[in-house]
């Protein structure tokens, strides 16, 4: 495709309402705060700059009349200037010739030809927001602000002009208290954007190189997918321990088991299916999570046996508390040659999981690649035996697999021919 001429590029750049994604447009409803959570390079800055432009010029659907005074708040003054104002997607770039505001760096403000003014503020100086008043505000990368609470409070006191003062927040999420409160607030409307959604505006190869490396990890889910990732303070597993022990490949494994936590219902439900192996270094390697949802018994049994065959496992360990002999019978209907080891839980989930979590804390268990859904269950598992308010099926299967490999609880190795 031939490169656009300067005139063509300016024409396309000015047609934001045509090119914008739905998550980059102001949401409907009577909201006070529009919170745009997004990954790196997801188009958050462009969305914020276009929103401010629309307000200052009184352009539908952003505003019916110009908003006279607007606050621009960033982590530092340098961030406001270099990203929000002068950046490649900043305010000076999104205006067509003839409508651009005058950037007055010494006064830290933009002035539009119609008289609208946007003032720049730094989250390093919350007191700088004491006194000025606004009809709108754009806050960028709030989750990085050094004095987030104090700066946000001062900004709220200044939002007092016009009939309906509003604010937009663009940020890659981090689990800070202020962001949690904003997400939970009734007057907040949230849109979400991923890095991949903006791939056509990113450098060639960036998606494959960066997303391929970090996809599914905590850092990738936060910085690329725009997810708010949190751990339970009272949990057995901590995400930083899992991340620190993650590996891309595993060594030759001397013993492999597939563990199954069947659903409580005979008709359908979630069946936890996890494979793990023991390395020559005595380290346990979690190599796959093949958990299935809302399937019949014959379907989850087939999924478990496929994983068993895929890794040429030594044993298939199945919890039989819920189904008793039916669990083994269902597995044998699919493949009667698979050695099934039945295990029965005699203790609560928390007590059963503690020895396995201790192995993680000692650095004796590694995850091979990213196992996002399993890791979410581990890090949200609490003393009540629940994860995210429900039974942790993936976690249960993991516990049985690691226990069979490293704690001598079920599963005997078979002789492998060479």
From TrEMBL:
Name of the protein described by the UniProt record: Large terminase phage packaging protein
Stretches assigned to the Terminase large subunit gp17-like C-terminal domain: 259-404
Signal peptide location: none
Oxidoreductase recorded as keyword: no
Pfam families for this protein: Terminase_6C, Terminase_6N
Domain of life: Bacteria
Gene3D superfamilies (UniProt xref): P-loop containing nucleotide triphosphate hydrolases (3.40.50.300)
Organism: Bauldia litoralis
UniProt cross-references to InterPro entries, sorted A to Z: P-loop_NTPase, Terminase_6C
Alphabetical UniProt keywords: Viral release from host cell
């Amino acid at each position: 495709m031939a490169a656009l001429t300067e005139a063509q590029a300016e024409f396309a750049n000015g047609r934001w309402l045509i090119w914008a994604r739905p998550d980059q447009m102001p949401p409907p409803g009577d909201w006070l705060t529009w919170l745009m959570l997004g990954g790196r390079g997801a188009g958050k800055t462009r969305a914020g700059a276009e929103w401010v432009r629309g307000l200052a010029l009184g352009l539908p659907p952003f505003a019916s009349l110009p908003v006279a005074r607007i606050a621009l708040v960033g982590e530092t003054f340098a961030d406001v200037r270099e990203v929000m104002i002068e950046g490649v997607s900043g305010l000076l770039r999104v205006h067509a010739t003839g409508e651009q505001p005058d950037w007055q760096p010494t006064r830290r403000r933009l002035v539009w030809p119609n008289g609208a003014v946007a003032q720049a503020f730094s989250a390093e100086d919350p007191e700088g927001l004491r006194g000025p008043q606004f009809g709108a505000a754009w806050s960028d990368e709030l989750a990085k602000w050094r004095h987030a609470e104090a700066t946000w409070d001062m900004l709220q006191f200044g939002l007092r002009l016009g009939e309906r003062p509003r604010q937009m927040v663009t940020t890659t999420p981090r689990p800070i208290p202020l962001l949690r409160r904003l997400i939970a607030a009734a007057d907040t409307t949230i849109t979400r954007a991923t890095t991949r959604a903006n791939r056509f505006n990113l450098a060639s190869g960036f998606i494959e190189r960066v997303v391929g490396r970090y996809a599914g990890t905590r850092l990738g889910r936060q910085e690329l997918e725009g997810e708010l990732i949190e751990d339970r303070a009272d949990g057995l597993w901590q995400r930083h321990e899992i991340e620190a022990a993650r590996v891309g490949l595993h060594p030759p494994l001397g013993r492999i088991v597939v563990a199954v936590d069947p659903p409580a219902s005979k008709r359908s439900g979630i069946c936890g299916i996890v494979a793990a192996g023991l390395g020559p270094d005595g380290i346990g390697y979690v190599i796959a999570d093949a958990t299935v949802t809302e399937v019949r018994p014959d379907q989850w049994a087939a999924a478990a046996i496929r994983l068993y065959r895929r890794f040429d496992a030594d044993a298939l360990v199945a919890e039989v508390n819920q189904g008793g002999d039916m669990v083994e019978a269902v597995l044998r209907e699919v493949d009667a040659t698979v050695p099934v080891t039945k295990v029965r839980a005699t203790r609560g989930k928390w007590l059963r999981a503690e020895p396995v979590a201790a192995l993680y804390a000692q650095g004796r268990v590694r995850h091979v690649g990213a196992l996002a859904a399993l890791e979410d269950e581990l890090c949200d598992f609490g003393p009540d035996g629940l994860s995210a308010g429900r039974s942790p099926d993936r976690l249960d299967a993991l516990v049985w697999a690691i226990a069979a490999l490293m704690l001598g609880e079920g599963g005997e190795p078979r002789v492998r021919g060479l």
